[in-house]
Amino acid sequence: MIVVLCETIQPYFMSVVVDRGVLLRDMSVITHIGGWMIGSALIGLVANVCNVYVSSRVSTGFGTDLRATLFAHIQRLSFSDIDRFGSSSLITRMTNDITKIQQVVLMSMRLLLRAPMMLCLAIFFVVRIDAEMAWVLLGCIPLLGGGVYLILRKGFPFFMRVQRLVDALNGVVRENLINIRVVKSFVREDFETRKFEARSEQLKDTVIRASNIVVLLFPLMQLILNLSVVVILWSGAYRVANGTLQVGELISFVNYLMQILMSLMMLSMVIMIVARAAASSQRVNEVLDAEPSLTDTPVGRQNRYRVERGEVEFRNVSFRYAGGETDVLHEVSFQVHSGEVVAVAGATGAAKSSLMQLIPRLYDVTRGEVRVDGVDVRDYALEALHQGIGMVLQQSELFSGSILENLRWGKADASREEVEQAARAAQAHAFIEAMPEGYDTLLGRGGVNLSGGQKQRLCIARALLRRPKVLILDDSTSAVDAETERNLWHSLRAYLGRTTLLVITQRVQTMQAADRVMVLEEGRLEAIGTPEELQVVSPAYREIYRSQQLFV
Ligand SMILES: Nc1ncnc2c1ncn2[C@@H]1O[C@H](COP(=O)(O)OP(=O)(O)O)[C@@H](O)[C@H]1O
Ligand SMILES: [Mg+2]
Q1: Is residue 81 scored above 90 in pLDDT?
Q2: Cβ-contact 102, 59 below 8 angstroms
Q3: For the whole prediction, is pTM greater than 0.85?
Q4: Ligand number with the minimum distance to the CA of 519
Q5: What secondary structure, in 3-state letters, does 175-220 show?
Q6: Kind of pairing, strands 524-529 and 516-521?
Q7: In the 8-state DSSP scheme, what is residue 498?
Q8: What is the DSSP string of 229-258?
Q9: 301-551: CATH homologous superfamily?
Q10: Checking DSSP bridges between strand 312-319 and strand 329-336, what pairing results, if any?
Q11: 354 ligand 1 Cβ < 6 A
């Protein structure tokens, strides 16, 4: 408000200087009013600096808060919610979209009050100088407003499309970078480059089309305003000639006209940026409004259940992914006793991973129930459930940081002893020690890269540290050689004691070492029993057995 007051008062001072100072040759008025002009300009300057400082701080703080809120919210979402948005879109929303909203906050704090106030004050002065001439102006404003409205209405759908195309482009880049090894090994660089270029071209075309519409806006405003200046000067000259208007007043009138142009331009700029950011804020809100589909149930919040024995039971469980068309699991029932080792076999796509993810409640069953220690998993507090059930996912990843940090990720307060013990049990200690900096070796960017089998063993060690009562390994030893794997099973059993172990595996040796084997076929439980029993009753198991006997 101070900035606007200091700005709009200037033409008024000028008219006084011209009419009472210059025309009447009165030097004292010129120095006196000139002093006021400089003083108010300085005050305006200071106020403006404050405004820039505060608005920058506030908008940056706003962006940081919003990003933190969104990040925390994403952490609470469950697997199926993340599936729904897609992680590349979530990244775009976290970065690009929030930056757009942050810009709006910045611009609004600078202009949203300033532009309309300047417009009003300038109009006030113009009417005060000469109400009749001001009519010309009042005729122009609806014309200008209408023009801005029409242009923005035509442009808005393009702004929305631009955001979506940015999203798509980010998606292509992200996917490419994550899969860069695949791209290289299939020599598909050209194909990927063309895919990127096509997206990029599409974005460019849309941006150009959006700009083509907006490009009309400012020249059109300028034209209307210049025409009105001509009209004002023409009719003003008559008034000055017959003495109803003074020269200084005419000059300040034209100056106010310019301020009106400025404020209208600022306003339309704000409206445009807001329109662009509306798409972004919609996308951010979509995530913020997403209720985590998996939370503690009311019963789960009250109960103090802990996983103690590690018994797992499925009762007529059917499961379908959100948005999926068919069930991936059909009426599965079985029971695993405390301390038992059960191998899970089946072709890829048989829903082995889906089945296992139901136990720690990463997804909820569609029908039936999953029980751990005789209690429905939905009746546990999620934290207690996850504390008791360890899981190494099929595509487990490590974080950048030292090996020690990665292992402690499973249990933050684990002593060095504990960590080494878990690493020994996972057959990881030897190769860690062999590294130049042992447990302090850095992984990831700027550090060493591990082989697939080494990564898998670290992931297992990380899960072991928690001493879970049920441990699920989803094909977690696929990249480990046969001999190391044999040792691994021995050391694991010694380490785990009475922990129930569920192991998805493709290897017959592992199945034969298990207490029981469960064979899945297209989401159905084909058979469950000891390896010897399955040789007799399960054609699918015999088939797996036979095929590997041939090749090994
Ligand atoms: N996140 C998911 N969303 C939708 N469908 C999925 C998802 N994950 C797996 N599926 C589908 O579920 C079926 C079983 O997959 P999965 O459990 O991974 O099999 P397996 O681990 O035995 O190879 C497959 O048809 C797969 O396409
Ligand atoms: Mg799987």
Answers
A1: no
A2: yes
A3: no
A4: 1
A5: HHHHCHHHHHHCCCHHHHHHHHHHHHHHHHHHHHHHHHHHCCHHHH
A6: antiparallel
A7: T
A8: HHHHHHHHHHHHHTTSS-HHHHHHHHHHHH
A9: P-loop containing nucleotide triphosphate hydrolases (3.40.50.300)
A10: antiparallel
A11: yes
Domain parsing of the chain, residue ranges: 2-289, 301-551
**CATH number corresponding to 2-289:** 1.20.1560.10
Contact between residue 169 and residue 205 where contact means Cβ atoms under 8 Å apart: no
Please say whether the beta carbons of 337 and 505 come within 8 A: no
In testing the pocket of ligand 1, which one of 328, 394, 524, 526 has its CB within 8 Å of the most ligand atoms?
Answer: 328
Q: Is residue 75 classed as helix, strand or coil in its secondary structure?
A: helix
Q: Can you tell me which atom of ligand 1 is nearest the CA of 354?
A: 17
- Other C-beta atoms closer than 10 Å to the C-beta of 426 total 27
Q: Which H or E element spans position 147?
A: helix 131-178
Determine whether the shortest distance from the Cβ of 351 to ligand 1 is under 6 A: yes
Query: What pLDDT score was predicted for residue 446?
Result: 61
Going by C-beta distance under 8 Å and a sequence separation of 6 or more, which residues neighbour residue 180? none
Condensed to tens digits (0 to 9), the pLDDT of residues 509-523 reads: 889 889 999 999 999
DSSP symbols for 10-49? HHHHHHHIIIIIITTT-HHHHHHHHHHHHHHHHHHHHHHH
For 202-240, write each residue's pLDDT tens digit: 999 988 988 887 777 778 878 888 888 898 899 899 999
